[in-house]
Amino acid sequence: MIFTKRSAMPDLFLGLHPDNPSPATRVGVKLARIAPDLLGLTYSIFGDLARVAFPAKQASDRTDELWRHTCLEAFLAAEHGYYEFNFSPSSQWAAYRFTGYRADMREVPAYDPGIKWWLDGEAGRLSATVRLPMDLTGPLGLSAIIEDISGNRSFWALAHPPGDPDFHHPACFAAQLPPAG
Question: How much is the pTM?
Answer without folding.
Answer: 0.93
